[in-house]
Amino acid sequence: MLVRHHWLGIGASILAGAFWGLVFLTPELTRGFQPIQLSAGRYLAYGLVAASLLAPSWRRVRPLLGWREWKTLALLSLAGNIIYYVFLANAVLLGGVAMTSLIIGLLPVTVTLAGRRDADAAPLLRLLPSLALGVAGLVCISWQSLSAPQHGSLQGSLLGLLCAAGSLAAWTWYAVVNSRELTRLKGISAQDWSLLVGVVTGAQAVLLAVPAFILHPGVHASSAWWSFAGIVTTVAILCSVVGNALWNHASRLLPLTMTGQMIVFETLFALLYGFLWEQRWPSGLEWLAMALLLGGVLSCASAHRKKAAPEVEPETALSA
Length: 320
Prior knowledge:
By secondary structure, the protein is an all-alpha fold. The protein contains 15 helices and no strands. The model is unreliable at about 305-320 (pLDDT under 50).
């Protein structure tokens, strides 16, 4: 059976996925703005909110951070936030919400493979069914995207797939390194680590804002700019601050091979929001892909079940 902290980790993962799924709608809600502007705006807001929340505990946290921690924070912020979201926004605009969210749905496979050698990982042989289900889900949606593109030409859909693949690679690296750092760091809470990533991401977004808003600002009405600011700030609070804190909490409670599988809830919620936005029912292949992805999660949970210790008979105990 699954132990109590595993159930708490699964619950935190589901909530994180519900918030993260909103990210996939942002490019649709802010059409007319460039992906680099979405990334810069979101992470500037993330940095400001994170800095204000971290301020009360800064004196306690600061002595715990050395060169290694700052270097790791910089790399995590760049790969898991800036690079990831620029690729993701382009993928949504070129290939659509459904295609992008289901490509990102391959994260359970990539993260699980990356964590297969960790001490608390389930044996790879027991994880093969869940990995196979995830790959099958990816094949279903990739086939539909290339055979019947809904967002322009075949070339555009292919480019969208490549952008989604870049986003997948960036976040796989982030998930693995972040999980291992959280295991190593004992004096810093999961919430504080998430806020530190936010502060560093905000600093990086300042540099990104120069080409995003000064060199190529675009022509937008003042109402559009206010709408843009409201959307990216909401996404920063819900997806980055709240969602990342929940995910870090789950990362400390679950083995990496199980954490990877929980990312599928981001995909499932993104699909739900995408279908509501497009006001349509999933196609047959999309239904099949979602069923395969969910089946992969259930299979992974089963692979991590711990057998209950056998009860000792009274006679055996006395003779011992």
